[in-house]
């Protein structure tokens, strides 16, 4: 912990939001920063959770502890609905209370002497949890990086995919990779992920692949690393119902650890992760899991995707706003995040200007890594009228 910088990004943003509200209580603040869902969970899903919860008050419906790995029916449903034709089995699916929690549980699999690589920019929890587990050196103010961690730059110049040469990405034990990416919104192509899998095989690496935004993909980009041949030998996948089903407060996610994935000594990784789940976790809420099953029913899935489409329309509105202002815009098509370039300005300066002049909360790009300098991340999670009002304010600011 001694090397970890004080102040995780999102609590810092919340603090600045609180301070702004105190100074401007009369202004309507618009939150396009932290990616928290805003639209109601479809009734078919909440009804399933309510029915399960009410049954707990009856002798016949009461249930106590469930399996630490998750409800068997839900594990099978995830494998069959979301990983059809990829060869994933129900026993390889571990249900949890969310992808972010699983990031830290996965860190327990590896000793503190393993080397780590992350996309730059990327979700801060990958780096912060690595530092907490002793894999990061001192933070270097000049570079904006922690020592002993490889930052794989992903920017427009390289199509948001890192240079995987051994010079740029030396032998690395664990590679964190998110697609569609948070914050850039970019979804890696089949050929890019094929190169990543091939690199992991030749390098002896394990990929921790975050597919939390897969439901937002609009084109033919892979929704899972397991669409790539051989990925089950090198990759663990984490995902979540948070953004696709509005479960940010309900809490439900999953991790897939294929039986084919082995350490260099041949021992199955799945056995170690199973032990960690049984030791450090008592299983996801049974009520949340009832909701997860409803999400994967035919009617529930359609309702869930309809809400996803609503957010994608919000993303389109935000992206078109900045495009019309002559700014470079990335993301939004395959993710609920829009990555906007403000050349020649620091991210925090732009964040402060937008907040002070338009009363809109955003996220400064450098919060996701040094490659985020000059960028701002906008979230598409919001009510339509709020997003339209934000568009109007931003057009007035930058016209």
From TrEMBL:
<dbReference type="InterPro" id="IPR015422">
    <property type="entry name" value="PyrdxlP-dep_Trfase_small"/>
</dbReference>
<protein>
    <submittedName>
        <fullName>LL-diaminopimelate aminotransferase</fullName>
    </submittedName>
</protein>
<dbReference type="Pfam" id="PF00155">
    <property type="entry name" value="Aminotran_1_2"/>
</dbReference>
<feature type="domain" description="Aminotransferase class I/classII large">
    <location>
        <begin position="28"/>
        <end position="392"/>
    </location>
</feature>
<keyword id="KW-0663">Pyridoxal phosphate</keyword>
<dbReference type="InterPro" id="IPR015421">
    <property type="entry name" value="PyrdxlP-dep_Trfase_major"/>
</dbReference>
<keyword id="KW-0808">Transferase</keyword>
<keyword id="KW-0032">Aminotransferase</keyword>
<dbReference type="GO" id="GO:0008483">
    <property type="term" value="F:transaminase activity"/>
</dbReference>
<dbReference type="GO" id="GO:0009862">
    <property type="term" value="P:systemic acquired resistance, salicylic acid mediated signaling pathway"/>
</dbReference>
<dbReference type="GO" id="GO:0030170">
    <property type="term" value="F:pyridoxal phosphate binding"/>
</dbReference>
<dbReference type="InterPro" id="IPR019942">
    <property type="entry name" value="DapL/ALD1"/>
</dbReference>
<dbReference type="InterPro" id="IPR015424">
    <property type="entry name" value="PyrdxlP-dep_Trfase"/>
</dbReference>
<comment type="similarity">
    <text>Belongs to the class-I pyridoxal-phosphate-dependent aminotransferase family. LL-diaminopimelate aminotransferase subfamily.</text>
</comment>
<dbReference type="InterPro" id="IPR004839">
    <property type="entry name" value="Aminotransferase_I/II_large"/>
</dbReference>
């Amino acid at each position: 912990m001694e090397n970890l910088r004080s102040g995780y990004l999102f609590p810092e943003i919340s603090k600045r939001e609180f301070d702004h509200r105190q100074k401007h209580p009369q202004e309507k603040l618009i939150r396009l920063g932290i990616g928290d869902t805003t639209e109601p969970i479809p009734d078919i899903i909440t009804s399933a959770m309510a029915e399960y919860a009410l049954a707990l008050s009856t002798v016949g419906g009461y249930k106590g502890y469930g399996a630490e790995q998750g409800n068997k029916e839900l594990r099978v449903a995830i494998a069959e609905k979301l990983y059809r034709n990829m060869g994933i089995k129900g026993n390889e699916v571990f249900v949890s209370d969310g992808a972010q929690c699983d990031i830290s549980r996965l860190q327990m699999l590896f000793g503190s002497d393993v080397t780590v690589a992350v996309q730059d920019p990327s979700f801060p929890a990958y780096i912060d949890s690595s530092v907490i587990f002793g894999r990061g050196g001192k933070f270097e103010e000049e570079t904006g990086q922690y020592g002993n961690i490889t930052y794989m730059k992903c920017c427009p110049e390289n199509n948001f995919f890192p240079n995987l040469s051994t010079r740029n990405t030396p032998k690395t034990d664990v590679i964190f990779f998110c697609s569609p990416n948070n914050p850039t919104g970019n979804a890696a192509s089949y050929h890019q992920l094929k190169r990543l899998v091939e690199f992991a095989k030749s390098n002896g690496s394990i990929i921790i692949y975050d597919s939390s935004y897969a439901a937002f993909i609009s084109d033919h980009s892979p929704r899972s690393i397991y669409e790539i041949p051989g990925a089950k030998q090198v990759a663990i996948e984490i995902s979540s119902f948070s953004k696709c089903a509005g479960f940010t407060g309900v809490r439900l996610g999953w991790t897939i650890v294929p039986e084919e994935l082995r350490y260099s000594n041949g021992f199955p990784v799945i056995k170690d992760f199973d032990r960690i789940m049984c030791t450090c976790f008592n299983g996801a809420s049974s009520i949340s899991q009832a909701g997860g099953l409803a999400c994967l029913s035919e009617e529930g899935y359609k309702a869930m995707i309809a809400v996803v489409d609503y957010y994608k329309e919000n993303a389109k509105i935000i992206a078109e706003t900045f495009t019309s202002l002559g700014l470079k815009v990335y993301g939004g098509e395959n993710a609920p995040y829009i990555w906007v370039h403000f050349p020649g300005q620091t991210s925090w300066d732009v964040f402060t200007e937008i907040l002070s002049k338009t009363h809109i909360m955003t996220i400064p790009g450098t919060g996701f890594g040094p490659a985020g300098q000059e960028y701002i991340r906008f979230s598409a999670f919001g009510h339509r009228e709020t997003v339209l009002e934000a568009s109007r304010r931003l057009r007035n600011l930058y016209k």
